[in-house]
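Allow me, if you will, to draw on your knowledge of protein folds for a short while. I have a record of one protein: its chain in single-letter code and its fold written as discrete structure tokens. Kindly check, if you would, that the fold set down in the tokens agrees with what the sequence suggests. Thank you for your consideration; the sequence and its tokens are set out here:
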Amino acid sequence: MGTSGAYGGSGGNDWRRARAAARRVREQPSSQSIGNLINNVATAAGWNPAEGDGLTETPGDSATPVPSAIPPARPSTFRIPEAVIARGLAGLGISVVGAAGAAARGGGRSGGAVLSGQRSPRRVARTAARVIGSGYGLQLGDAARLTEVGLDLNELRALDPFDQSLRILDTLAAGSSIQDEELRRALADVLVVLQDSGGTVVPEEIVRAFVVGYVFQVVCTESGAELREADDPADIERQIREYLEVRAHEPSVINLSRDARTVTVALLETSIRALIVETAQVFVR
């Protein structure tokens, strides 16, 4: 299911190790091999708690530790339904990066660029918090929250749900780089959830769902070429997402009110940033 001219992943030894781990997942998918893949992706992306908040460029060539024992994945308390994921991606004109959308990695991009700097938890959290906060603001009719980020409640209400999400993303998460696409895909999913629920999904679950979706997108970007060669790539992608859902619910770094009206963008940003870093720590402990 590979694509001629498709993006082959970032350069550097750490990313090459991550793609080697993806080949092991392709050959023998398990909690152990998937955990090893996520571990290598986290290291290559710079999501290393020892380095602070992941603002460093791609780390050096030191060996990536392999977790000695990884418990099997189990269902999490909340997940974005597959139908919502499809709507969030396709509905906003964004192609799926994995098995269902190999062509999305075409377009003449070539490998070799080091993308880790723009994937820092600080940068990702800042953008995601503003988008998620705006999604809540729209659903809860909070004009002041929207005005703070350059959006207008009345203008958004005059649009259909598709254009509402697109306006929020184009205003707060614009960009056409590979990293921007990853972020927009993950944010598109949570915006659809907020629309469908009328903003009733509690902020903690939205934050965890976003982190799962975002890390999943990075994994697909950097190892999709390897995973698409599996006998059943869709099933492997499902296993990776389920594994991430379990891991994102293990850390206790999120301390958000269950009332979305009282959650500020600053608190969302802090929680998202901490969860990305803590999730990486879970993978390597």
Notes: The chain is about 55% helix and 0% strand. Residues 204 and 256 are 6 Å apart (CA to CA).
